Amino acid sequence: MERTIAGKAITVNEEGFMKDFSQWNEEIAKELAQENNVELTPKHWEMIHYLQEQHKNQVPLTIRKVGNSGIVDIKGFYALFPVAPLKTATKIAGIPKPASCI
Amino acid sequence: MMANHLSRKLKSDEWQITIVDEAEKHYYQPGFLFLPFDVYQPEDIVKDIREFIPKEVRLVKQKIESIVAAENKMKLSNGEVYQYDILIVATGAKIAPQEVPGMSGPLWQKDIFDFYTFDGALALRNKLRDWRGGNLVVHITEMPIKCPVAPLEFAFLADSYFEEKGMRDKVKITYVSPLSGAFTKPRASDALGHLLTDKNIEIVTDFAVERIDDETHKLIGYCGREIPFDLLVTVPTNKGDELINRSGLGDELNFLPTSKTTLQAKAAPNIFSLGDATNITASKAGSVAHFEAEILTDNILSFINGQPIKEEFDGHANCFIETGHGKALLIDFNYTHEPVEGEFPFPGIGPLKLLKESRINHMGKLAFKWIYWHMLLKGTHIPFVSANMQESGKHFE
Question: Cα–Cα distance between B142 and B178 in angstroms, integer?
Answer without folding.
Answer: 6
